[in-house]
Amino acid sequence: MSLTEYTGRKRVRIGALALVVLIVGGAGLTVRSGIALDRLFTAGFATRSVEMATPIALAAIGGLYAEKSGVFNIGLEGFMIFGAFSAAASMYALGGTSPTQGQVWLAVAVSAVISTLITVAFAVLLIRYEADQIVAGLAVWFIGLGFAPFTAAIIWGSRSSPGLASVNSVAFGQSPFVILTVLIVLASWVVLYRTRYGYWVQAAGENPEALDTAGVDVTRVRYATVIFSGAMAGLGGAVLLAHAGNFVGIGDTMVEGRGWIGIVAYLFGNYNPIGAAGAALLFGALDMLNVQFQTVGIEVSARLVNLLPYVAVIIVLSAWGKTRMPSSVGESYESED
Amino acid sequence: MSGDDDGLRGALDRAAAYMLDATVLERIGIAIASTALALCIGLLIVAAAGHNPLLFANQLVIGSFGSERAVARTLTFSVLFVLAGIAVAIAFRAGVFNIGVQGQFIVGGFATVASIVSLAPYLPDGTVGGIVLMLVGTLAAVVAGGLYAALPGVLKAYGDANEIITTIMLNFIAIGFVGWLVAGRFSDPEATATRTERLPDNVGFPSVVFDDPNLSIVGIGATIAVVALIAVIMTRTSFGYDMVTSGHQESAATYSGVDAKRMIVSTMTLSGMVAGLTGAIFAIMIQGYFTDPSGIGNYGFDAIAVSLLAANNPVGVVPAGLLFGGLESAGSHIQINSDVPVQLIDGIVGLVVLFVAVPELFRMMAQRTGLGGDRE
Amino acid sequence: MTARKTPPAVRLESITKRFGDVVANDDVDFTLERGSIHALLGENGSGKTTLMSVLYGLYDQDEGTISVDGKPRTFDSPRDAMRAGVGMIHQHFQLVKPMTVLQNIVLGHEPTDNGLVDESAARAEIEEICSRYDFDVDQYLDTPVEELDLGAQQRVEIIKSLYRGAEILILDEPTAVLTPQEVERLMDVMNDLREDGHSLIFISHKLDEALTIADEITVLRDGEAIDTVRAEETTEQDLARMMVGREVLFDRLERETVPGEPALEVDGLRMHGDRGQEQVSSVDFTVREGEILGIAGVQGNGQSELVEGITGLRSVASGSVRFRGSDITGTSRRDRIEDGIAYIPEDRQTEGLVQEYSLVRNALLGNQTIEPYANGGMLDWTAVRDHAEEIIQEFDVHPPDADAGATSLSGGNQQKFIVGREIGHDPDVMVASHPTRGVDIGSIEFIHNRLIELRAEGLAIVVVSSKLEEIQKLADRIAVMYEGEFIDVVDPETVTEEELGLLMTGQRLEDEEGTGESESDRGVQA
């Protein structure tokens, strides 16, 4: 018991340390440039950070469920690309280059359904055919990187879409998807820790045999979580698109590593949905810091500031490496019967 | 280079011996089936997109092997795929998932250009100066690539940080940081595109055998030498035995006296060194300068597919690399001569990787159809 | 107690279970009366756990029938067994460690209220069970299981079975992981359960525990049920005789040499286990050239860690290991291999052999830096192949094919190959950990003879085994390990199996037969 207590405390300390470093670093920069902190950390910055964090948080929630149940879904990035692209494509199909708000919503919903269907196939390969989880997950990313721009080129004659429409904000200048995400985060916390399904998910990842002898079908639990993870990542991609208003398919596409950051977000959040969402917020803020620096006129290369989240991930992961993975992750489970 | 000849012969001997092995046959079967299935799906998609799949298939062949130019282009790409594939195979064979070959490749290539460009003013213009510059540049790439890979190795061994995530993050960092350098300190003020200064004229491999300015026999020779060297290391040295055994069964490796943590770091370093070398050859043989790395091909990522297709066997990486070189080369051809968007090739590569990950699928299919039904 | 009208809770008739050529259970009959405790007694590998796994639906029997409460049953899975009211408490607990006690108990059978788990209903039900059997589990229902000590985890397992309605409980070596105080507590719990009408099967190899708690005792040996006796009508001596067998299978081989110089000296060795707990507490011993030290003990008393400390696989907390006079405490595993410390590992599947390698490639395992197989980092596969073929021939490995995969060999042949390879190191010290576990009789004999030949050649040998007859046959001195220390060192020629059995359970003998005088708080020096 001292061991868990120790790592728990260590974790909190490192987390606090990371935050302090970031704040002090930010403050240092600000003071050197003679710019007051209140101009850097504005309400607009907060809004944009939350908006930036939303897709990451959604992917993280999905990935967290899959991994909790013992399946490492490393393909989140790929599913986000599918989600973003299919949202753009359905928006274009519904309303051309000037879709209405209703069509934006419908497109996001259609996109979530499409991502779910793709994930079903992925889940069958992973669970039924015992695919190597890491290699298959990478493949999903490659497939997304290839086929999304490919189809975009077929539809629009270019890897990126023309300007479509982004979702209108509702209360407090916030996107409705931000509110939806908050609800999803809370709901997934409740399901994971307060319902029998959550118990089963946790047991499937930690000791599938115990769950099996308790009369619950481990395979079914894992199917559910993997499909959920793809659906959430797809929704994350769709939300990203609904915020941006057009699809970008050059380079690493508009998803640009957010799925990977999502994985780190839930590791950082120690598999707790609320923690993961908090971590996503941190990464979202780091992402937006760049814009903020430019607005207040701090001369830092945009490219370097963009790297901050990645550097943070490596530091966090190394200092925090002992994040406790569910013990049966990556092992396929076959029941005795 | 006689040592390499011996090594190559030994490697070929072993490859021939492996051929008799049922599991190796099975792996080759799975590789072929994966590729074929992925290509079939690709053609279906072409048809679904309203293009003629037969025409597309024809262009694939013409674009990869249809002319001397196409062959030279295929070989050029193959050099990169084989080398990067070897880098991946080293790590995967030892049970370490180095997904960061792309980043190590970029860091290596940039190190070559940066060191050559900064050193060139101090060296004579002639061939000797050029050779010294190339040696220094290559060395810089190997060292930079090795160090850039050693970092996630150390973090995994001593910090317990998952190397899959850290190497992917380091890819993004390499792209961003090198991109910043290329656009800033090292940018060529006279160039319109974002790139570094050109390498001096005395730096470059001679174009013997092929006319293609991007393909040199030196590059091909270096690739074959690396394949042979890594094959020899894996099969004929104590270090290679330690490495491969760690990948198969870490507990047995530890029992036999392997220090698991140190092995992770050495494997990553060796893998990154080869990735760095790939970058050096890319910079010297193909580009002649270094561009913004976000626009460089995904050689390091596709190399994962190459290695998996070859079951992480260094000799098997050669045909797998040629296949990918051919696909990429066909892609260049298709980009100009076809309406089918070239990104399809990337998608097909993704499908190959996906199918390679699911040997069980093909085993079951083989059983259903009665092929190889004797296997359990 | 002798209300024999109700059908027995469990009746196993003529159960036979084979694994390949090995017969794990041979025509075994077993009857558990309702409301009683029946001990299943036998040494490791005698087939106790196999028999119970057949009952619990983990294995299908090859022959024989099972009936529960008078009805013939076949269980395809533990789930089926559970539904019929049979619960099993495994040695490795089926608990989800980071989840709380309450969550573990209700897992799969959660009461719900509006979709959420109804914790208060669960709590009430668990508290009811706890108060009925005087359990303390309700005191820590919200604690993660991993924070409990093993005794408490075991009680959680029992409650879990009861919560799911188990009437028949199988406890597989439940005392193996417990402290003496916890054992006492478990006995009380078992008594309460019996009084409440539950029927219990108690798997053990500890005579005194079986005598204390059980109504009936069935002794298994080599897969056969030797006899079933009533506890009040038997003695420890009788049971020991049944467990070990009257006929002594192996004669002690007379030694031909006199021990020479000390080859391996261990002084004040302390070591920690995987979870940081102390597993070896101050062990001292010396093994001389031409001598075999046997280390006996119930598994989990620190033998594995001790062996890993000697062979360089685990770093020591304090103390020293000396090899032919020089201190090797801090040297690496590879250094020790090269120095000449050979090791027949405890687990041949994960350590001793690489499963996917051929025998040729396995012949190199551990030899990869040693001449003539390696020269300046380069391997000589011809030499390795010759070596593999030599081992195959000399150690009678079947199939005699150096290119055969390790998995194609039977356990005995795998083990002979490993023994051959380790002897091939030409070592000065040989550490053999359970050298004949899961090995057929012929191979056992062969391996024993080779070890004794090695002694004659002047090697210092350490043999760790839980098989007493093996230790008695091979060892010149027997150190009995209990809770991380040598509880006694005895002479194999004079000690009896019964005495060894007592020592293994931590009871010191009245009249010392060993060398050292037992110090009050410290283990005995060997």
UniProtKB/TrEMBL annotation, chain A:
<feature type="transmembrane region" description="Helical">
    <location>
        <begin position="176"/>
        <end position="193"/>
    </location>
</feature>
<keyword id="KW-0812">Transmembrane</keyword>
<keyword id="KW-1003">Cell membrane</keyword>
<protein>
    <submittedName>
        <fullName>ABC transporter permease</fullName>
    </submittedName>
</protein>
<feature type="transmembrane region" description="Helical">
    <location>
        <begin position="104"/>
        <end position="127"/>
    </location>
</feature>
<keyword id="KW-1133">Transmembrane helix</keyword>
<feature type="transmembrane region" description="Helical">
    <location>
        <begin position="78"/>
        <end position="98"/>
    </location>
</feature>
<dbReference type="GO" id="GO:0005886">
    <property type="term" value="C:plasma membrane"/>
</dbReference>
<dbReference type="Pfam" id="PF02653">
    <property type="entry name" value="BPD_transp_2"/>
</dbReference>
<feature type="transmembrane region" description="Helical">
    <location>
        <begin position="260"/>
        <end position="283"/>
    </location>
</feature>
<dbReference type="InterPro" id="IPR001851">
    <property type="entry name" value="ABC_transp_permease"/>
</dbReference>
<keyword id="KW-0472">Membrane</keyword>
<feature type="transmembrane region" description="Helical">
    <location>
        <begin position="134"/>
        <end position="156"/>
    </location>
</feature>
<feature type="transmembrane region" description="Helical">
    <location>
        <begin position="226"/>
        <end position="248"/>
    </location>
</feature>
<feature type="transmembrane region" description="Helical">
    <location>
        <begin position="304"/>
        <end position="321"/>
    </location>
</feature>
<feature type="transmembrane region" description="Helical">
    <location>
        <begin position="12"/>
        <end position="31"/>
    </location>
</feature>
<dbReference type="GO" id="GO:0022857">
    <property type="term" value="F:transmembrane transporter activity"/>
</dbReference>
<feature type="transmembrane region" description="Helical">
    <location>
        <begin position="43"/>
        <end position="66"/>
    </location>
</feature>
TrEMBL record, chain C:
<keyword id="KW-0813">Transport</keyword>
<feature type="domain" description="ABC transporter">
    <location>
        <begin position="264"/>
        <end position="508"/>
    </location>
</feature>
<keyword id="KW-0677">Repeat</keyword>
<feature type="domain" description="ABC transporter">
    <location>
        <begin position="10"/>
        <end position="247"/>
    </location>
</feature>
<protein>
    <submittedName>
        <fullName>ATP-binding cassette domain-containing protein</fullName>
    </submittedName>
</protein>
<dbReference type="InterPro" id="IPR003439">
    <property type="entry name" value="ABC_transporter-like_ATP-bd"/>
</dbReference>
<keyword id="KW-0547">Nucleotide-binding</keyword>
<dbReference type="InterPro" id="IPR003593">
    <property type="entry name" value="AAA+_ATPase"/>
</dbReference>
<keyword id="KW-1003">Cell membrane</keyword>
<dbReference type="InterPro" id="IPR017871">
    <property type="entry name" value="ABC_transporter-like_CS"/>
</dbReference>
<keyword id="KW-0067">ATP-binding</keyword>
<keyword id="KW-0472">Membrane</keyword>
<dbReference type="InterPro" id="IPR027417">
    <property type="entry name" value="P-loop_NTPase"/>
</dbReference>
<dbReference type="Pfam" id="PF00005">
    <property type="entry name" value="ABC_tran"/>
</dbReference>
<keyword id="KW-1278">Translocase</keyword>
<dbReference type="InterPro" id="IPR050107">
    <property type="entry name" value="ABC_carbohydrate_import_ATPase"/>
</dbReference>
<dbReference type="GO" id="GO:0005886">
    <property type="term" value="C:plasma membrane"/>
</dbReference>
<feature type="region of interest" description="Disordered">
    <location>
        <begin position="507"/>
        <end position="526"/>
    </location>
</feature>
<dbReference type="GO" id="GO:0016887">
    <property type="term" value="F:ATP hydrolysis activity"/>
</dbReference>
<dbReference type="GO" id="GO:0005524">
    <property type="term" value="F:ATP binding"/>
</dbReference>
